Amino acid sequence: MKRNRLVATTVASTITLALALTACGGSGTGDASSPEPNDTGAAEAGNITLWLNGADTPDDLRQYLVDTFAKENPGSTLTIEEQSWTDLVPKLTTALADKANSPDVVEIGNTQAPTFTAVGAFREITPDFFEELGGDNLLQSFVAAGDFDGKHYAMPYYFGSRYMFYRKDLWTAAGITETPKTLADFVDDVKKLRTDDLSGFAIGGQDWRNGISWVFANGGELATVDGTEWTSTLSDPNTIKGLEQWQDMFKGASNLPTTAKDDAYWDFINDGEDGSPATGATIMAPAWARWSIGDLTTNDEGKTVRDGMADDTKFDIFALPGVDGGVAPVFAGGSNIAISANSQHPQLAENLMRIIFSPEYQKMLGGAGLGPANSEYVSSLGDDKFATTMIETAQNSKLTPAAPGWAAVEGANVYEELFQKIAEGGDVTALAKEYDAKITPMLNGK
Amino acid sequence: MATITAHGTQEVRQRRKPAAPYLLLIPAVAVLLLGLGYPVYWQIVTSFQEFGLAQQFGSAPPTFAGLDNYARIFSDSTAFAVVVRSIIFCLVNAGLTVILGLAFALLMRAVHGWAKVVLQIALLLAWATPVIAAVTVFRWLFNDQYGVINWLLVKMGLTGFRGHVWTATPLSFFLVATIIIVWMSVPFVALSLFAGLTQVNDELLEAARIDGANKTQILWRIIMPLVRPVLAIVLLLQIIWDLRVFAQIKLLQDAGAPIAETNLLGNFIYDLGMNRNNFGGAAAVAIFVLLLTVVLSAPYVRSLLKEDES
Amino acid sequence: MTTVATRPHAHVSQAAPRRRVLTPRRIGKWALSLLAVVVAVCWAFPVYWMVLSAFTPNALLRSTTPRFLPTRGTLSNFHYLLQSGSGFWPALRMSLSVTLLTVVLVLVFAFLGALAISRWRFKGRKSFILAVLFIQMLPAEGLFIAQYKMLSSVGLLNNVIGVSVIYTAAVVPFTIWMLRGFVAGIPAELEEAAMVDGLSRTQAFMRITLPLLAPGLVASGVYAFLQAWNEFTVALVALPSQTSQTLPLWLRTFMSASASRGIDWAQVMAASTLIAIPVIVFFLFVQGRMTSGLVSGAVKG
What we know:
A: D-Maltodextrin-Binding Protein, domain 2, D-Maltodextrin-Binding Protein, domain 2, 2 domains, 3-stranded antiparallel β-sheet, 17 helices, 39% helix, C: mainly alpha, MetI-like fold, 74% helix
């Protein structure tokens, strides 16, 4: 078994080894036993692997992890492998279950975390270790997504958030000079803005990830848990109220197809390349959408890009208002991070977690525009309107139910179907009943 | 003639070296066992088990489920709808691909040399395009807001197509899917059939023409019998491939479509395994698809065996 | 009626090249040529659109009036992909290794197998032919867990050999079947006659049989090449390490939006173009031989 692992990681470890050597001048690297045992327990030297998804974690952060890990764990190395979000589930399903070749630490989407946690894919984060990593300062909704049976397994890694991007000029032209204060105001405003050529609020019929904000804002829940038994609660009166408000808004404010998903909404509020007018006055999108919005400009590398909303008389943002004012709870993006139950070097993996949750690294996340898991360091995101709106909405954000079967619900596109039917004008109460019956068994993994 | 000589040789060789064919088959059989033996064995065993993510992670042992996974294919109305839809989709696509492929092959034969080369290059380009790229490009072409197709139709005066969403209803979704799959598959069929047609003797056709055969007669009485073996092969391959089409549908659904009503067998297997973590059920459907393909291709297989025996 | 009408045409057409008269048949040929070009344009258009997008800045990709010409072309998409850190070159090397190894294994194994079933009648022959036929009908979507377990247990994850063996197993059935017709089409007497003339068995095989088999081998090779080059579901689980990605996996990494950025479609198109180029080059080399090879095998088989 040991030998297999060696074969598999030879290529990768040669590269990290080279990196580590250049990083710390070869001090201690290659030495099989650490001369001075550190206070975190005698970790046997070895190579560990961290899976990060997509290009979200910037290169300098990765380098920091590799360097710091090598420095703090003489003789051991860290290899970071980038995985793609699209294909993560098949890879986790196979590799995490493999005792010989499992990655040691993995980043995982927050909606996928409960499923893998429930089957014992991750190593428990003991209460003491949890305190050491940040304890109650860690983003609660994300911690909950990684809990199972009262124990912690997957920790928050970073968060993103969603807010509203809008065309200030178009809103003003329609006589609306103030951003809405309540959710009902928002619905009225965007309905007023709609014409045949312009969506007041460009949202797709299948876009439940943005749509569930209306449920949350009205005090509704998607599902509740009693012990370990999950129940879909679409028929809850508050949930119905939210869904009906969303239905009314979709019909009155959006020109998008009922089958459209959360996809490239910025195309609607940008002016066309040929000067054709925008076809949407408002969109709801993750914070990074900013860099796809604005007027066309040429960047330093001579590439034609959008200017990131430089003209603030034309483009602006606001947080989706709540039912009674304030900020509505929106669906939070982001990911969790966990140690594989099959990790061959759990001590080293824990040491890596310590580095990730250290103040230095948390601030680096913030500096890169990723919401840090530890709320003490959110100020590192900056203080411009984008940062403050992101923090404001993230503090009110919610996650999808942390049920073991949630990934199945998502994977089978059940919510896409439901929202499409609502968008088509279906009877919300009847649909809620129908889908409750369908979703409840799925949530419990039946 | 060829058959007779072949037989003669076989008899000679059989007496001389009875072990030879078995030795020659060793590498192929070995690689099949190595590459497919365990996976197929696992697939069959799992299809009779309750096998989910917990079993995959070893936190619960798999339990024997008998024929439950198979029974569910027939009792579950969604699954049954997927089967019916897939068979129809497969036959329509395989049929269209082969008909168009044959038409293109005949066209290449009938035209000037330069036109033939132009068409061949176009077909090769389509064949070499990665699936992901092909589907993405078609999604753009059929996009409701920015798509070239809607733009063209509106230019042609069909203003009803302004902002038309092609993937919104199952029927028009499958129209787009069919266009993509036919676009990708026709090159293989057309080029194969064209090469088959080059073996049709020109003098034979000229003679037929002089004897008063019209074009339809020449096509059906002379050309078709000659290309029949190739036609049969490409048709069988298209049926096998189109029944398990997966990536094109999946990527097209990502553009926004009624998912449950547009799933085909390949997507159904993937969903069942990967998304619902019901690996037992997925394995059962996979075995079922294998049996279904065997049934659909049975006529061809029978004729193949008959030819082989004669 | 038809008889009367067709006959003169046939005669005229033979005389026509000298007299340069536009007879109905010549007009027909021109009309059909025109049709062929129209079809070609339709078929090539999506590919043109892919390449055009690859040269367009991402911010300009979507516009309400389509641009059919590269008026605002940029090389920046390719520039980004071809720089050393993008992973293109290692993935290209990996893809080439896997593909070439697969092609070689497939050709050798399938040739030997085809030889066995076309030159000998033996016990178990029919079952073998049937098995070979049915194996390729099994959908691959459910196999990957077992494939992973298998490779992991023998230490061949992230290894060219492991993936190549799986690809070879997937491709060999069809190629045995294809080659069988070619081998049957070459009478063994030819080889034996050459041996009577003083050549050794190997020499006879190399000089007589192999050249006759070339089209069939080219056809099988192209098939194996395409399968191995484009495959990604097996590669996904069998090559989990980032350093052992093949090109289709590399392309997939551009395909997902995430918390901090959207999909750069122009880059996806540029990457797709890069992946298609080696295939197109390979095709242009072997195309003529391939189609004739594929078909004569089938016709004779």
